[in-house]
Specification:
With 63 residues, the protein is an all-alpha fold. It contains two helices and no strands. It has a domain of 36 residues. The termini are far apart.
Length: 63
C-alpha cells in the first residue's frame, strides 16, 4: 500500500534500463522504487521543474 500523499503509476521500460536501475539501486542500497523516484526527482531539479522544498513548478514563469 502506498504511503499517504504518494500515488502509484505503471511504467514500461526496456529491460536493459530496468536492469541498470536495479543494479544502481542495489549499489546504493535502495529499493528500485526509491531509486526511480530519486532519479525522477534529480531530473526535475536539473531541469528547474522542482523547487528545493519539493514543490513542482508548472511553468517557466514560476521563477
Amino acid at each position: 500500500m502506498a504511503s499517504p500523499g504518494k500515488r502509484a503509476f505503471l511504467i514500461r521500460v526496456k529491460p536493459e534500463v530496468l536492469d541498470a536501475v536495479e543494479r544502481l539501486a542495489a549499489d546504493e542500497m535502495r529499493s528500485v522504487n526509491a531509486q526511480v523516484e530519486m532519479l525522477i526527482r534529480e531530473g526535475l531539479l536539473r531541469r528547474g521543474r522542482l523547487g528545493a522544498a519539493g514543490s513542482v513548478r508548472t511553468s517557466d514563469k514560476d521563477e
